[in-house]
Amino acid sequence: MKFFIDTADLDEIREAQSWGILSGVTTNPSLYARTGGKLADFEPHMVKICQIVGPDVPVSAESTAETTEGMIAEGERLASLAPNIVVKLPICEASLPATHKLVSEGIKVNMTLVFSAPQALLAARAGARYISPFVGRYDDIADDGLDQLDTIVTAVKNYSYGYWDEEGGPEIITASVRSPHHVTEAALMGADIATVPFAALKKCVHHPLTDRGLEGFAKDWAKVTGKE
Ligand code: G3P
Fold first, then answer.
1. pLDDT value at position 98?
2. From ligand 1's centre to the CA of 227, what distance in Å?
3. Phi, psi dihedrals of residue 105, rounded to the nearest 5°
4. What pLDDT sits at residue 102?
5. How high is the mean pLDDT of the chain?
């Protein structure tokens, strides 16, 4: 499974990039708002992210347009910012024709806010390169986000769609990830990608037994070096 980072914070992206594990970046309007950025800085900010990760790493930039025409225009503009921009669109009646048009121009779409298999299948059929089912937000309404993810992965992978076959797409991005458990289960289900916020990514590095083991080694080494 590939790891993406779910953030618009440049320092977090730089650090995750330095770990050598980063295969992509996903942003959304809320994550950009969290950086304190204003509208005029949005496009330059997306360009900075693209420069940090390099031209081969996909960076999802979300359109906030509400009409098909608006999504196409914004999508074309975002895609022109850098070769690795992926246009993020929310699944809705307006975004399906927008996706279909953008894909005909060779522009990649990440279909977001996906919560059901029919939504995911429609996104794939319209030509989305990535499909992002949300796990944590499902859990938030006392449902089982991982169960939904499993259904979506199985349903989408049952078929081929003729748009991104050579690249192995459409790929499923496990989104709204909150914990290492979400990452483990997504990998077992065969989800292609997990986009993980930096705090949850750090949790994935750690384990209580690793920490305890390190403490024990340090104590015993202090005996060896006489620095107890
Ligand atoms: O970027 C989309 C998704 O990962 C957001 O997740 O944490 O706001 O539920 P969250």
1. 98
2. 46
3. -95, 5
4. 98
5. 96
Distance 51 CA to ligand 1 centre (A): 23
| CB-defined site of ligand 1, < 6 Å | 6, 26, 28, 134, 136-137, 175-176, 195
Tokens for 45? 């900010």
DSSP 113-179: EE-SHHHHHHHHHHT-SEEEEBSHHHHHTTS-HHHHHHHHHHHHHT---SSSGGGTPSEEEEBS--S
pTM above 0.90, yes or no: yes
Query: Alpha-carbon distance 68 to 152, whole Å?
Result: 25
Given a contact cutoff of 8 angstroms between Cβ atoms, the answer to whether 175 and 211 are in contact is no
Nearest residue (CA) to ligand 1, atom 3: 176
- Catalytic residues, by residue number, are 88
**Minimum CA distance residue for ligand 1 atom 9:** 176
Give the residue-averaged pLDDT of 148-162: 96
d(CA 176, CA 153): 16
